[in-house]
Amino acid sequence: MGKPTVDMLRTRARGQVITPSDAEYEEARKVYNGMIDRRPSVIVRAVDVGDVMAGIDYARDNGLDLAVRGGSHSVPGFGTCDAGVVIDLGRMNGVRVDPRQQTARAEGGCTWGDFNHATYAFGLATTGGIIASTGIAGLTLGGGIGYLSRGFGLSVDNLLSADVVTADGRFVVANARENEDLFWALRGGGGNFGVVTSFEFQLHPVKDVVAGLFFYPIDKARDVLSFYRDYVATAPEQMGLFPAFQIAPPLPFIPKKEHGKTFCAIVACWAGALKDGKNQMAAFRKPAPTVAEMVAPMPYYAINGLFDPILPPGLQHYWKASFATELTDGAIAAHTQFGPKVPVVNSTVHIYPINGACNRVPSDATAFAYRDAKFATTIAGMWPDPADNQKNIKWVKDYYKALEPHSLAGGYVNFMADDDQGRIRDNYKDNYTRLVSIKRKYDPGNLFHLNQNIKP
User: Fold this and answer.
1) Cα Rg for the chain, rounded, in angstroms?
2) Which residue, of 186, 267, 269, 428, is most buried by count of CB atoms within 10 Å of its CB?
3) H-type alpha helices, 299-375
């Protein structure tokens, strides 16, 4: 039997099959990171599992690279490729909530904006990211850090089941009772094992939250980070928060004269009783006088989208990430040296806490191995002008290098750059050997290699 042709793929697929000769091609090939400019030979805009199967079979049987795109946020550009096949899940974005069981089944193309809006109607939520336009698939498969992590664990800790199409085109269900090895690997092992077409999550009673944004003078950054280190160790687990270095955007609560200046900030989300939120936020006035602050109740989905306006698609992106068991004085010194040099309003540095519920899961219970880590730092270089690429990438790399002596060997795979493939073993520690074995079982030909790749 001959290799399948594009015409055969079009006959088999219900969704659009787009090639370079189609009018939609230029728009369809775009991804979130404007630094990535690749030209796939075929883009399958999947609308159902059958389309995913067809795209996988077409790529495998033709020996082509295969990229899988959910929310399109992959900073290294893993959601696209040159001369290969892209399976775009963006049209598979349905969410079904079961309020009695407090669960939700979401298709693989959903963003956290889609998911949080659907679950909010029932007063429920689960751990997601901090950008509404981020896809649930990529974030979850890499671990899933967000505002609710300290109380409810990572996204993978709330994953109950996954529907997966494997490299041989089979549809399988992975959970605690079926294909348990695959289920273990999906919880932190990234997109190495197949295309997840739907996720079932455990939900929790979270509807409206109290959000807090606090901007401090940049010369008080050391005091703010020292406070954060001590506070987060014993803070109520309903409090999600992180410190940041941020150029002030033109927000109404920030005095106009401060717009465009660089500050150290704390972003906080109280997911406990609303009546307690204001008092809980008072703690963040202790480390230093605030230049500007905003404390207000809002829907959980609203805080999840607060940063979206300054992070539109098409920015240039280069990121680095690291884990740490402590926020040492040396790390704080590195932050106070490089954080104030954040280049533009779109760029930022966040130091996420991953203690609390995240640390109560054994390191070998899921593929996400760093259950002893307390902090996950991301240096997120994002800027509009490609002419600034060299100098801004240097800022990210220099910052990361300064933190290296104070960090663990591995980092969060979701924030890794395309030049971080050499860190794969470190990213999974003792779980790496088991991941290789499972990769060999489900994808022996490494069809799914456009990722932080675990080689079979």
Assistant:
1) 21
2) 186
3) 300-303, 329-338
Integer angstrom CA distances of residue 218 from 8, 59, 242, 262, 310: 60, 51, 16, 7, 21
Label residue 251 exposed, middle or buried (CB < 10 Å: 0-12, 13-18, 19+).
middle
- Residue 137, exposed/middle/buried by CB under 10 A (0-12, 13-18, 19+)? buried
CB atoms within 10 A of CB 448: 25
Contact 106, 114 (CB under 8 A): yes
Model confidence over 329-340: pLDDT tens digits? 999 999 999 999
Query: How would you classify residue 284: left for phi > 0, otherwise alpha for psi between -120 and 50, otherwise beta?
Result: alpha
How far, in Å, CA of 412 to CA of 422, rounded? Answer: 14
Can you say whether residue 314 is alpha, beta or left, with left for phi > 0 and alpha for psi between -120 and 50 degrees?
A: left
Strand partners, 135: 111
Exposure string over 396-430, b if 16+ CB within 10 A, otherwise e = bbebbebbeebbbebbbbbbbbeebeebbebbbbe
Residue-level pLDDT at 2 = 79
Closest CA to 131 of 294, 37, 291, 267: 267
Enclosing H/E stretch for 322:
strand 316-324
Tokens, residue 328: 């040492």
- Amino acid, res. 451: N
Contact 378, 349 (CB under 8 A): yes
Phi-psi region of 401 (alpha: psi -120 to 50; beta: other; left: phi over 0): alpha
**pLDDT digit string, tens, across residues 224-240:** 999 999 999 999 999 99
pLDDT of residue 1: 60
Question: Measured between alpha carbons, how far is residue 299 from residues 94, 292, 328 in Å?
Answer: 21, 22, 35
Q: Helix, strand, coil % (nearest 5) of the chain?
A: 35, 25, 40
**Cβ 135 vs Cβ 110: under 8 Å:** yes
Q: Which residues pair with 350 in a beta bridge?
A: 244, 378
Which pair of structure tokens corresponds to residue 173? 């269900």
Q: Which residues of the chain have pLDDT under 50?
A: none
d(CA 44, CA 68): 10
